[in-house]
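Hello K.,

You asked for the raw outputs rather than the summary table, so here they are, unedited. I folded two proteins back to back in the same session to keep the settings identical. This is the first:
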Amino acid sequence: MFKKTRNKSQPPEKNLVRGKNLPKELTPLFKGFGLNKEKQYFVENLSMLTSSGMTIVLALDSIRTGLRSRRMKKTLDELKDDVQSGFPLWQALEKTRIFRTYVISLIRIGEESGRLSENLKVISLQEERDRMFRSKLNSAMIYPVFILSLTPIVGISIAWFILPKLTIVFSQLNVELPVLTKLLISFGGFLGEKGIVVVPIFVLIFVTTLFFVFSFKKTKFVGQQILFHIPGIKNLILQVEIARFGYLLGTLLDAGLPIVNALESLHQATTFLGYKKMYIYLRDSIENGNSFQKSFASYAEIEKLIPYPIQQMIITGEQSGSLSETLLKIGKIFETKIETTTKNLSVILEPVLLVIVWFGVVGVALAVILPIYNLIGGFGG
């Protein structure tokens, strides 16, 4: 009997989907930051060229000519070298560490089943859909963020440049000033003296706070919790996450990926901590032999993340053997909901933002007008 040996030039088989089992050096350090358009171009053209019968090496050469980024060109050169050395495309792509786990999984399944070009089309559509979801969420946030950022800027500018001059005027008036005006004058005088130091420090603290609350990896869950408790934004986040859940999980299951691995990919695709925890729980629960029904019933916060009717649709789809079709239908339903919510969100938030701005304007106006009114009243007396 001969013992089967492995070619040393070939890497050992690895679990590409369960990210926690990946060797440390192959765990993605970043997900193609700054390369989104180039990655989309790569996937779309690779799908088109391979479906026409072109070999992967020739397709890579053709794609490289249309790239602008030096980094992506270098990545394609390394990719071509690995493929020519005998690596499967999925292993070569995994080494680049610029594609998410579910992309690698679909390419692997496509290569092994002879459906590479079809799976590349699925990847391209899914990436485009995911970008659309993020774009809808970001565009919905631009208006309130702009208003709430502009308000303190205008307020500080008035307090810094205008109030010190009003302080001089009011101090010469022989009239009792209202408390609101005294506070405003004190604040204006303080900014007049210390503004050159205080304002930059305030701006630095404000920007740093926003960064740690909404962007820093270890603390951004705080900002996510804040957003998830704002009525209109909460609904949009929930709809985006359920649409992603339906489309991505349905697509992966339809492509033949095991459900445990598909849930791991879903966990890596989302950015909201609450959904990440839920997907990890579902993954582990189903891996232990539980159904979606038992997994949903045993997760305490499931109602906040997945509405009960959607749970029932998933349970019914699992029991009837049509889970992937049901999930894709859920994704389509919530994609339509996202369109409606995005259009209505600005209408919902606009009156709230106007009230916030109104309070600031009225406060400053009263502080300026009241002493003038008292002065006129004194003249009348």
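The second followed immediately with the same parameters:
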Amino acid sequence: MQGLQGIHHIAIIAKDYECSKQFYCHVLGFSLLAEVYREERDSWKGDLALNGQYMIELFSFPAPRARASYPEACGLRHLAFSVDDIALAIQHLEHHKVACEPIRIDPFTGKAFTFFNDPDGLPLELYQQ
């Protein structure tokens, strides 16, 4: 498509907004750029950045429906974050009681990667650069 420049943001709906905000900000290292309560929707919206770049809109809604999260379910499969040292990143996550799958090696690139979940079960990936 002409004019398409990249991904602007990723929107995530959290079951427990405060829990997910803490996870993304304090465990993964995002910063909270802005936060607003939208009374008409009974919903919080937080804008999160990583290394100064706006990336995630974190929302809350009353009683959000669960989404199927199997690895091969139709729809968004996972979000992947690049890291310099996957072993160090896994150690950090495990320190915060976040379980990671065993490290795998991408057969096409030879790079190491692993999967873990956010507080709502959204599959996330760490991919070593």
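The chain has a mean pLDDT of 91.

Happy to rerun anything if the numbers look odd on your end.

Regards,
P.
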